[in-house]
Prior knowledge:
The structure holds two protein chains of two kinds.
Chain A: E1 4-7, E2 10-14, E3 19-25, E4 33-38, E5 45-50, E6 56-59, E7 62-67, E8 72-77, E9 86-96, E10 99-104, E11 108-113
Parallel strand pairs in A: 2-11
Antiparallel strand pairs in A: 1-3, 3-8, 4-5, 4-9, 6-7, 7-8, 9-10, 9-11
Chain B: E1 4-7, E2 10-13, E3 19-25, E4 31-38, E5 42-51, E6 54-57, E7 64-66, E8 76-78, E9 87-94, E10 104-105, E11 109-113
Parallel strand pairs in B: 2-11
Antiparallel strand pairs in B: 1-3, 3-8, 4-5, 4-9, 5-6, 7-8, 9-10, 9-11
Amino acid sequence: QQQVKQSPQSLIVQKGGISIINCAYENTAFDYFPWYQQFPGKGPALLIAIRPDVSEKKEGRFTISFNKSAKQFSLHIMDSQPGDSATYFCAASLASGGSYIPTFGRGTSLIVHP
Amino acid sequence: DAGITQSPRYKITETGRQVTLMCHQTWSHSYMFWYRQDLGHGLRLIYYSAAADITDKGEVPDGYVVSRSKTENFPLTLESATRSQTSVYFCASTPPDRGRTEAFFGQGTRLTVV
């Protein structure tokens, strides 16, 4: 059973447009929701994260919107740039023994055309 | 250099052979993870370790063995490689502090089983 569902699988956006990636989760015990960005040939790296007591978090052009009642969260990339072309993973984590074990969505391949 | 290092970066092996993927981190993070990345499946957790000599199964552990005799090393062994284990493998670690929840990934090992 897929615990974190991510959509779309791929996304093509024009430069300057808004990229939106959505995720949904089932386990209400999840208490940390990060997004990771991965460039070809590299490992994923943390982009931005949110905790369930906050409905929105913004860092530069990247915003996470969180809807606890719907068990959904999304990543918005404003003014998308070609350099944003990458694979994006949402994740949800359970606190365990003092650390977090992330469960990942299947990823979204974003292409931003110049 | 500080960080998390995987070796080898690329490996081709034959069906039925044993192969070990290495992971070394210099931060003394307590938690370490092994993920495999496949198109359409995202990142799936194979095994994780909370500390030296403590390991546990993830979502897809069959056919894999791990050990952790030292905090800094977390090798992943495929006891008898199969073609379905062709994948990109990522090692990751997280610090023990709940206030620091970022997972740090290595560069990955691309394994091809022929």
